[in-house]
Amino acid sequence: MNEETAKALRAPFPDEDIGKLPRVTCKACRERSCQNHRTQKCQVCGSYISTQHIHLDYVGHAELTDRLLQVDPEWTWEPVAWSADGTPHIDAVGGMWIRLTVAGVTRLGYGHPDGKRGGDAVKEIIGDALRNAAMRFGVALDLWRREPAHLDDTAEPEQQQATPTAATTDIDNAIKNMRDWIAGAGMTDRDEVRAFVNKIVGREVDGPQSMRRTEIERVTQRAREIATESKASGGGES
């Protein structure tokens, strides 16, 4: 990614693209057990919500997508892991880890439904994950910095986002398998391995964790072919 692209990603959003996201600051209100605050329609964000809330500036899914398309029309995302039925893997707390690729660079992001259910939950997970991953590229980073560390003084620490250990087991195994076959093909020099992987993938790869599953499989397949041919001929790769 060049400097111009990185700068375009981090460019501030115009005021008309920044929305107001309500966040309840009263723990009892969040647990629907508060006797001190009433619920009514907010004139700022339009939500029917506890009067004890604040507004966080945020960029919506449409505005984020527009920014990514402006910078890289071929940007893409994919889940870190897949479920047995072929759908993206949802972890034990209802969230999803993704890989967002922009201008050839891939970074992780995590999304959560924030209490929503059904189809709305799925859309919220994707949008939240994209915003989280895009933040790693500096998109709307100034807005993220404005978020308060805690919503209230009495709130318990927010549950930490689940690490993708179980979700990425198959990816880790695939990476290990790829490395084993590359070594089996006689490639041990780091620069040689990097050149081999980049040639097969067709782009500059920033480490195995930035690779898509299909890319890992392609590299593994080619390394397996080289190793098999080398073994059959009784020699090394030339």
TrEMBL record:
<protein>
    <recommendedName>
        <fullName>DNA repair protein Rad52</fullName>
    </recommendedName>
</protein>
<feature type="compositionally biased region" description="Basic and acidic residues">
    <location>
        <begin position="208"/>
        <end position="228"/>
    </location>
</feature>
<feature type="region of interest" description="Disordered">
    <location>
        <begin position="208"/>
        <end position="238"/>
    </location>
</feature>
